[in-house]
Design brief:
Keywords: Decarboxylase, Flavoprotein, FMN, Ligase, Lyase, Magnesium, Metal-binding, Multifunctional enzyme
Helix content: 25-40%
Pathway: Cofactor biosynthesis; coenzyme A biosynthesis; CoA from (R)-pantothenate: step 3/5; Cofactor biosynthesis; coenzyme A biosynthesis; CoA from (R)-pantothenate: step 2/5
Cofactor: FMN; Mg(2+)
Number of strands: 12
Distance between the termini: 26 Å
GO molecular function, one term: phosphopantothenate--cysteine ligase activity
Bound molecules: cytidine-5'-triphosphate, calcium ion
Function: Catalyzes two steps in the biosynthesis of coenzyme A. In the first step cysteine is conjugated to 4'-phosphopantothenate to form 4-phosphopantothenoylcysteine, in the latter compound is decarboxylated to form 4'-phosphopantotheine.
Structural class: alpha/beta
Length: 236
């Protein structure tokens, strides 16, 4: 029962949680988006607030009730998310950042001020090619900005499907090393797994630690609890 969970081990901490998925506009009515529902990020934010933290919830395109005790900061695009997280962290006093949001890696190179039309004449059967440019890697930027310091504690998520180059765990290990964060939460994704669902299986990986904790199949609340258990013990 939730009432049994009365640990206040994040009292006095300020944490930033990003949730949802960014949308990168193409024209006034269209965007490039992803399938993130925001459920995992909102569960992470709710759990931190329940454990006593001040929570800044940077939310990208989520239609869920805001958890009790969280300050909602809404963003649309990856650039807006980067700016919001950056200003929170630069303000000082942030103990941890959990990057649960699905941040678009690319955005359309150009934004059309007017709706893109299908045809430009009676015989026009052409289709446009959409050029993309890279978005900044927000988590990598936080790792860089921290320099050699240990604050804020940085948690990354890895949505992996597994591919020809490796299974979910080996891809996650490589990503943890590349990202330089303190904890990586890896989950297996596919169209009917994880996205929008209430239960999930994740693997928790930390740098320099060979053993991997697997949580699940479990509710996103239990996953959130396991994440904050790790963060709280690292902060203390
Ligand atoms: N992330 C970020 N900024 C981006 C892309 C991702 O901060 N532009 C963060 C995500 O919020 C997540 C972590 O980086 O916490 C890993 O995201 P993921 O998409 O799994 O990794 P990428 O490095 O983007 O690699 P790829 O998509 O190629 O697997
Ligand atoms: Ca990505």
């Amino acid at each position: 029962a939730p009432a049994a969970h009365v640990q206040r081990d994040l009292e006095g901490r300020h944490v930033v949680v990003t949730a949802g998925g960014t949308r990168e506009p193409l024209d006034p009515v269209r965007f490039l988006g992803n399938r993130s529902s925001g459920k995992q990020g909102y569960a992470v934010a709710a759990e931190a607030a329940a454990r006593g933290a001040r929570v800044s919830l940077v939310s990208a395109n989520v239609s869920l009730a805001v958890p009790d005790g969280c300050d909602l900061l809404e963003v649309g695009t990856a650039l807006e998310l980067q700016e919001q997280v950056g200003s929170l962290v630069e303000g000082g006093g942030v103990d941890a950042v959990v990057m649960a949001a699905a941040v678009a890696d690319f955005r359309p190179a150009d934004y059309a001020e007017a709706k893109i039309k299908k045809t430009h004449g009676p015989d026009d059967e052409t289709a446009p090619t959409i050029e993309l440019v890279r978005n900044p890697d927000v988590l990598a930027g936080l790792v860089r900005a921290r320099g050699g310091g240990r604050r804020p504690y940085l948690v990354g998520f890895a949505a992996e499907t597994g591919d020809a180059t490796g299974d979910v765990l080996s891809l996650a290990r490589t990503k943890l090393e590349r990202k330089g964060c303190d904890l990586l939460v890896a989950n297996e994704v596919g169209t009917d797994r994880t996205f929008g669902r209430d239960d999930t299986t994740v693997h928790l990986l930390q740098p320099g630690q060979d053993e991997v904790e697997t949580v699940g199949p479990a509710t996103k609340t239990l996953v959130a609890r396991a994440i904050w258990d790790r963060v709280a013990s690292s902060l203390s």
